[in-house]
Amino acid sequence: MFYDHHFIRMHSVWWIVVTLIILFIVFNTLPYRSYNSREDPLDILKKRFARGEIEKEDY
């Protein structure tokens, strides 16, 4: 009675929906890390100068 093809197809659709929701939540809560982005040394100097870590003479 409950094992006809409509029930099985709908059951699999719900598992796909639940899996997509779980994946969405997991990937949105993990911190994003960019391993390929290296900072230019000049950018590092500009940031340090802006924070006041180095003086104008050092820059």
From TrEMBL:
Identify this protein by name: SHOCT domain-containing protein
Q: Which UniProt keywords apply?
A: Membrane, Transmembrane, Transmembrane helix
Reply yes or no: does the keyword Transmembrane apply.
yes
Instruction: Kindly list the residue ranges recorded as spanning the membrane.
Output: 12-30
